[in-house]
Structure formats: C-alpha cells, structure tokens
C-alpha cells in the first residue's frame, strides 16, 4: 500500500528520535540566551553600552524592516564596531536560525505523519506515541521560550545590521527569521492556527492517556489501600516477575503527561467542547498543580496561560469557568495531596530497600518496582520544587515545604546504589528471561500473524534470533551488551504498523505490542539501566533552584531524625551533569560551578555540624578529665583527714562537692543527659557518612570525610591555642602539664569518632600537633610554640634576669624569691622537669628549636652590648691582659676599668638563658634524632652548642675581620675575670645550699663563660683550652679543662674550704 511505502521511505522513527534530541538542545539554548540577557554581568555589552543605545532603540522600533540608509546616524555605533558585533552575536543569531530550521523540520514531519494517517495509543505503540507527543510539546516549549527572550529582535537585528554593513547585503536567513519572530509575538495564537490540521492525531494520542494518567494520579490513601510498591503484601507472588500490559507507562513522568495534556489541549482545543473524555482528562491535569515546567527553572502558570488563551476565543466561556474552578481546587487541595504522597513514599521506599538489601536477588523479578519507586519519588520532588518558588495564597503554606526531604532523597540514592551494586544479578535474570521466555513467546505470537509484509517480517525474525542467541557465557565472560538496535527496530516496526491501512496494523495485534513493550524493558535491564535512571530519577532541576535546594537542606539539618540522611543532598548533585546537552556547552560550565558550589556548601555544613558535636563531647570529656588532676585532690584529702580526726562536719547550708564520676551513676533510664543527646546526634550525623566514601560531580572527586577532617583540623588548632589561656597583658598561661593533659583528653574523645566512621584520627592529631610545633599554623595563626616561647622569654626569663626568680641547680628548675612583691605565678610550677617534659612533648623538637633560636637572639643581644663595653675599655683591657702577673699594676688598671657590674650582669643573663635552655634540652633526652644542628634541638648533649656558634657567627659584620673578633673575645674574658671580685661586695651574692646556687644567679656565670667562650673561639677557629687556662675562675663544669689544669690555676684546697664555710651557715630543719 502507498501509505506503508511512505512510512518505509520517510523514516518516521529515526526522524522523531533525531528531532526530539535536537529540539531539547534548541530549547536549552533558548533558555541559556534568556538567562544570559537577563543577567547584567553576562549580558552582551552591545545591549548595555550607551554608545549603542540609539541603535538598540532604532532596531527595536523598525524590526524587521530596518532602513540602513535612513538610519545611518542611529546605526553609526554599529558601523564602528561591526566586526566585534558579528563575532559577539553570531552564536545568538545562529541559535535563532536553529529554531527556524527546527520548526521547518517539525512541520514537515508532522505533515508527513498526518499524510500517513498514523494511529497513536500510548498503551500499544508506546514509543511512537511518546516521541510524537514529546516532539509537539518540545516544539511548543521552544516557541514559548523564544517569546520570553525580550532582546530577541535586537540580537537578530543588530547582527544583521553588522552583516549588512560588512558585506553589503543581509544574511540569507534574515528575512524568514525576522518574519518568524514577528509571527510569534503571540505564540499560542499562532501555534493554535498551525496545529489545526494536526488536531485529530494529537487528540487521539492525548486521549490514550486516559488509561494511564488517572491511574497514576491516585491519592496517597488509594496507594496505601493498594499496598503500592510493597513486596511483602502478597508473599505468594514474591518471586513472580513484576509485569503488566503497559510497563513503560508505569514509570512515565507525571509532569511529562501533564505537559502533554495541558499544552496539547491548548493547541488542539476543539475536542474540549465536544468530547467529555478530553474535558475530564484536561480538568484532572489542571487540578494537579499550578505550574508545569517549560525547561530548567522556566515554568508555565497553567491556569493563567489557559485562561488568557481561551479568553479571546468565542464559545469558551464554560472552559474559562472550568479553569477557574480547577485553580481553586488546586490551591485548596493539591498541597496536602502531594504532602501525603511524599509521606507514603518515604515509608514505601524504606520497606522496599530493606527487603532488597536483605534479598538482592529480588532485583531481578522486581526491577520494575525500583523504577516505579524512583519515578513516583522524582515526580513528587519536582512538583514541590517548582511550587516552592511560587507558593499560592493558602492557609497551609507549610504544605509547600518539607523538612523530611532528606529521607526521600536518601532512599532514591540507596535504590540507585542497589541497581549499581547488583547489576550482575539484574543482567543474569533478564538475560535468561529474554532468551528463554520472551524470544519463545514472541516467536509463537509471530506465527499466529496471518499476513506479514516482508519488511516487518524481517524485523520480527531478527528480534527472535537476537534474543535467542543470548547466553550466560557472554555475561560471565564480561561481554558488553548492546541491544539498542532491537529497541530502534521495535520503534521502526511501530511506525510501519501504525500508518493508516497498514497490512500489519499493530492495533489489531495488542498481544504483539504487549510482548514487545515488555521485551523492550527487559533489554534495557541488560544495557540501558543508566539511561533509564535518567528518565525515572533525574532531579537535576534542583541545580536551577538553589534557594529551594538550600532551604530543604537547612530544614532537614535542623531535624535530628533527618541528620542521618543529609549526605543525600551533596550526592544528588553528582547526577546534575546528566541533564546537560552538547548543543549548549556554555551552560555546562555554569552548571559545573553551581554544582560544585552546592556540593561544597552541603559537605562543609554537614562537617561543621559533626565537628561541633565531636568537639562538644571532647570538651565535656576534657572537663571531666580536668577534675582528676592532682591539684583538685587537696579538698578530698582534707575531707578524709577531718573525718578521721572527727572534726565537725560542714553546716547544712553547705552542699558537699560531688566526687568525679558521679555523673555516670544512673538511677532512671528515662533521664537523658546532655552527653547522651550529643552522642545520639553524633551517631545520626556519622551514619550519613556511611553512604559513600567518595563520589564524583562533573569529573571532580569529592571525599566527605576529608571535609570533616579539614574542619576538625582548623577548629582543633584554635581550641588547643585557646586552652593555653595565654594573656599577654597579665602574662598568665596554663601550665604545660595541664595543657598536655587537656589535649590528651581531647585526643581520647576524638578516637571515639573512628568507631562511627572510617577516618584517620591519628593522622588528624599528628597534623594538628605538628603545626603547633611551628611558629605559625597553616592559616597563619599563632601556635602553642609561639605562646610558650613568648611567655618563657617575657614572663620567666625576664624576671630571672632581674633577680626576682632564681635558677635552682639542686631541683633543676627556677624558683621565686620570697619577697613582698609576690609573683603572679610560681616559677617552679612552669620550669621543673615534669613541666618541661610536658612542654617538650607539646612543642616537640621543632618547637624547642624555635625556642632555642629566640633564646639565641637574646644572647646575641647581650653579646653585642658586651662588645660595646669592650670597645669602650679597649686600652685598659689590653694593658690588663699584658700585665696579668703584676698585682700592683693590675690593681691600678682595674680602678680605671668601668662597667664591671654591667658586664657581670649581662653575662649572668646569658648564663640564666643557657641554664634554662639546658633544662629544656634535658627534657628531650629520650628523643634521639640526628647529630650536629639537630642534636641540641633534640636534647642530645654537645660540648659546643651549634646554635650558639651559628648565632655568634651571624653577628659578624662585613667590615670586621676574624682577628678583630678574636681580640675582642680575649679581652672580654679578661674583662669578666677582672670584674669577678666585685661580686663579693654584692649582698645578693648569697649561696643557698637548698637551691644549690646564688640568689642573684651568679652561679650561672660559669655556664655563660664556658658556652660563650667555646662558641666564640669555635666561630674564630681558635684553641679553647689554651685561652680558658688564662681565665682564673671556678669552671668545674667546663669540659675543656682537665683536673690538672684546674689544680695549676686554682688549688682544690681553696675550693674545699669554701664549700665547708658555705655548709656551716646552712641550718637544717626537720619535720
């Protein structure tokens, strides 16, 4: 027959597929142009420049017949930059040309379909009918979007002006393009005229939805009574495959059907007055909501659009009344209607997931249930999203927001994950289904067909042969299946058998349609699950509604019961790239930025919440641990002692202090403590991290746990610094041992986190504490190392230098002098071996190295002052060195010497600093690293201090020679030696046997002289022993002088008598 021959030749199936894809690309481009022109930051500069303003107004006024000669003055700005205009507006112009070409192809195809007298029924030739309706609605959407671009005339007109001015003639496409833009000033009116000839086909296709749409539009109570999506409702059929006559219709998007019905009946509205079924279907769609999506975040106010359209048509007053009635009904009922649906779906999906997780093999026979569940959930989410931005005036606005959205999103992600995890199970089941059931049933059905044309016979025979050839060896061998050819051939067969007077009319063989529609679903389970997921579970519209999406997240995060599902929000963003189109790469870049922004925002907020709870728990543990510190035991000991001595008990008004640990005593399970609530919240939040270890969004890999570790790292650094309680004005700071104890309590608390989620707490703690050993952390903030370095230099050593605090060799620490001016801290509580070991553990070798460098800076400052004094007394010191063995001359010269006390004071300060440094190094004696420079930083003893040698070397100026430095060093030793007798007249030079040193710290002089002379002579490459032999002083600790050398210079009998005299004045006290 000629119509069948036309169907073969015109390739209706192929054209429908190609044009639908092309139409989606053109629609997205139109939306992108609208968004670009609406955004002041991205709007083409030619539309905003003041120079081109006259041209813009002129083009708008004269479009499309622009007089280039008469308007030369207004168009002068375009003449000046015509090349730039052509380059800048070419993509916009080409996009509008694409719309025109798309329109031409659509009308050509629609006319061909009408000529072929095609039959449409969504339940029979599903793919053919769906593609036909999609093409009509996509085309209508493109024209409606075109009419929403306010600058369309300027963009087209200005480009053509530039083309005319550059080439002397208009662009070839311009006349028709300008005419098209003018024709669609009132798009629906023009479209209605154009679709007049297609009314029969469109109406037939739409009316076939009355078998599908009303059933899909059931209420939540009807779903509940039918036990929709429940695998457990009928245990006897648990293993039976889920199948029906219209499998693809079961997951057809509701919004898609509503768009078909509402826009379809607007274009072909004649049957609304004549056909009750059409009218009922149309009114049902109008009652389901207030808006349908045009594309992205562009929506249609269905009641307003319909009312405005029918308002200008005679005989449609009743339809306008119907629209108003449906709108009132929608405002009154649809909010609660969809709220109840979402509530039902949360319970239904939860049950479905639990069963499938327990018995994943059920994914084979019950795969349809999964896609139905995803589709229903997607429908409700999209409805809520597009209505949340446009909430009508209603008494229950809460129906248009959902604080439990996280749960529904989570269940959708779980179903996706199950399909991915058990893909082999699904493929194995459906491979056997296709080869051992579908192929046989299809073969039997084909045999029962009496008359079958050759083309159709070839297609159906190939179906049977291809399906029969499938076997498990292919699957187990890892072969990739590609059954797209079968599905395309089925669409071709639908087209061939749907034309008028077809020899093989599909509507006469409903069993063939049913079997092939079912077979098509089974083939998609083999190789097209990802594409089917896009059709049923794509909610990338959330990318275009960031405010709504963020509000959903905010509401869910405030509900404790929803916190375990929060990770679904960033994971949903991973699917946003599925809605991009190759015809609009510019939009991809914007979507990528928006997606990553949302992902990072959600992950950071989840991490902040989790981090906050973790650190609250740690702080509470730290407080409990603090109660166990030794300093708090005095009161307990005192109470026990009083009780033993039978002293009177405290008065009734005084509440006895609770002992540590009483908070753990439970008398009633119902009593929930704050710690219980925090652990519950932490459990909920950490459960969300178990959803996935990482996911990919636009080729960016995101690891949720890393966001948590990053937050913990930042906040822990601040907390540890804050725990030091350093006050620069009062010079208060926490004792190192107490800070170390608090940090250990925090670390213990942090280790509980690894019980909930897989995070490397050890790495986190090492990272944080390692940063604290540096002067500044990774964010440039001060660290524990800096705080304690400043405090020991400004608080402890400054007062030790002034004599308020004494170095105590006996107890290896510094102690306060008892005086009227009491210090605000006890020096021994910060400098004894326990505290310095705690300090060494806190700031480590790197921190002590930094402390040592600062100590060296102070020493070099004193050395610089000492050199100045040597310069001032250079002549006298030279003579003293030359006349060392002449007592009378020595005595006379000594009287001429000035600044002796200053020299000894500065040397004492150096000695005090070096003594403190030695105590700090001793605290690190258990740590063994390298040698040389690292040796002193790690506590390993060195005869010559490398840090001091380095500091002395760096002091040398470019002008000074080694010999000059050597001379100054020798004279400095003479200066010190000559100045030593002045100590005897200082009343504070009192030796305390208890402390093992003098009150004014002059016992540190030997340390200063040994280390300083050794460092200075080493820096000058001179012999240390030779020069120290000239120095007659008690240098018992010197490693450079042997006992024989000391005996020659200073007989030991004098030392023994001095020790006996000191010990005689010390009074022993007992008790």
Automatic annotation (TrEMBL):
One of its GO terms (biological process) is cell migration. Residues 651-666 have a biased composition (Basic and acidic residues). Residues 644-666 are annotated as: Disordered. One of its GO terms (cellular component) is SCAR complex. It comes from the Eukaryota. It holds the Pfam family Nckap1. InterPro entries: Nck-associated_protein-1. This is NCK associated protein 1 like. It comes from Astyanax mexicanus.
